[in-house]
Amino acid sequence: MSSITDFSGKVAIITGAAQGIGKAAAKAFAEAGANLVITDLSANVNDLAGDIINEFNVKVETLVADISKPDTAKEICDIAIEKFGRLDFAFNNAGIGGKPAHVKDLADEQWLNVININLNSVFYCIKQQVPAMLKNGGGVIINNSSVCGLRPIDGSSIEYTAAKHAVVGLTKQIAVNHGAEGIRCNAVCPGFIATPLTADQDTDWFLSRIPQKRLGTAEDIGKMVRSLCSDDSSYVNGVALQVDGGYLQT
């Protein structure tokens, strides 16, 4: 267990937890002693739960469901309250990539799919998470945006960039609206992270533009999310934090 962060007795929700950043975040919170409610569209989330229980000796509940549905967001919070009696942290991580295209060629269905998963799901989750956290005096919500939520990038898709910008705006407004109630809300904005979502992208192009000259890892983001939820970050609220090895500085 971390000598700095101790989440024993705390409860965290993580969406999109079956792989990549969500999986790394789940392990980071479990390492700190938190009990988990993890969800994903993939049933692999159940395998992850077993691995975490064996490795970290914490309690884990799972839900295999579509996070773009409002009922799923409610069910996740209901599980946290029913099984653990509280909700302290939430990492709204689930998301998909887009398909770069000229705006005239962007199908309405593609736009709606990315907006529903990358933006609407975050709203649905926050809508349920805030009341659940207030039952025990507050909590911390972290939303997964992107460097594309801070600056458009040549070659990124219109729908992805739009959704990730909106996640930053949503994050900031929630922070303003609920800060006095004990709710902190921040966003992480990853750069190029080596995950299954980015496996088919041109890594050399990114490496040439990253001052640290390495790709980010899922663990880089997972540990940052954990840090933002800790008391070490107790005065950090409404921030969209780039975690990109300096990419946006170039």
TrEMBL record:
Protein source organism: Thalassotalea psychrophila
GO molecular function: oxidoreductase activity
EC number assigned by the record: 1.1.-.-
PANTHER family: 3-OXOACYL-(ACYL-CARRIER-PROTEIN) REDUCTASE, 3-OXOACYL-[ACYL-CARRIER-PROTEIN] REDUCTASE FABG
Principal EC category: oxidoreductase
Name of this chain's protein: SDR family oxidoreductase
One Pfam family named in its UniProt record: adh_short_C2
Keyword Ribosomal protein carried by entry: no
